[in-house]
Amino acid sequence: MTQRLILASNNAGKLKEFAQLLEPIGFELHPQGEFDVPEAEEPFGTFVENALAKARHAARLTGLPALADDSGVCVNALGGAPGVYSARFAGEPKSDARNNAKLVADLAQQGDKSAYYYCVLVYVRHADDPQPVIADGRWNGEIIATARGANGFGYDPHFLIPLLGKTTAELEPDVKNAHSHRGQALRALVEKLR
Ligand SMILES: O=c1nc[nH]c2c1ncn2[C@H]1C[C@H](O)[C@@H](COP(=O)(O)OP(=O)(O)OP(=O)(O)O)O1
Ligand SMILES: [Mg+2]
Known about the structure:
Elements: E1 3-7, H1 12-22, E2 27-31, H2 47-62, E3 66-75, H3 96-107, E4 114-124, E5 133-143, E6 159-161, E7 166-167, H4 173-179, H5 181-193
Parallel strand pairs: 1-2, 1-3
Antiparallel strand pairs: 3-4, 4-5, 5-6, 6-7
Helix pairs in contact: 4-5
The protein binds 2'-deoxyinosine 5'-triphosphate and magnesium ion (MG).
Magnesium ion is lined by residues 42, 87.
InterPro entries: dITP/XTP_pyrophosphatase (IPR020922), ITPase-like_fam (IPR029001), RdgB/HAM1 (IPR002637)
EC number: 3.6.1.66
Keywords: Hydrolase, Magnesium, Metal-binding, Nucleotide metabolism, Nucleotide-binding
């Protein structure tokens, strides 16, 4: 039986990744934009609080179960920044190009380029669900100054996986999903839903 699910996100890159992960296992994904759900506020300093706020917002406005993702890149030499502020690192309006330029500039004088992607997923059965289902994932890499690759989104052209010898924008989508913070978190979440 297919299960309808609202994806509480307006990020097209995330939507593609979730569709590839969830549709083969019987979920019918609907981005919140299909229901004219506007972007939720993300006022909190933790990923999990923002993900919960996004999930509840979409569930409230659609009356359907909702899945939210809050994620970002955490750079060790920058004390974990941009972290939960990754989407707006270079200010409003959100821009991947400006975010990447700022990240490269901020790291230019640093020897340690290590970083990780982090993702928290929150699933709510309805807006006031007292037992949100939560899972997370982490993916280690390093930031490189010169962009490589055209797949993915966000910081992918500058996020190198040394073990694979590729940036995450050079990986085929299924390979990224097999390794990524989001793929890890989603597999853990699905286990909890069974
Ligand atoms: O796999 C990834 N590959 C590259 N970049 C990534 C990835 N995962 C998160 N990121 C970056 C993009 C954005 O700068 C921030 C997420 O911010 P975040 O608020 O969770 O998402 P968003 O505002 O783009 O869409 P929405 O809140 O509607 O889901 O981290
Ligand atoms: Mg956001």
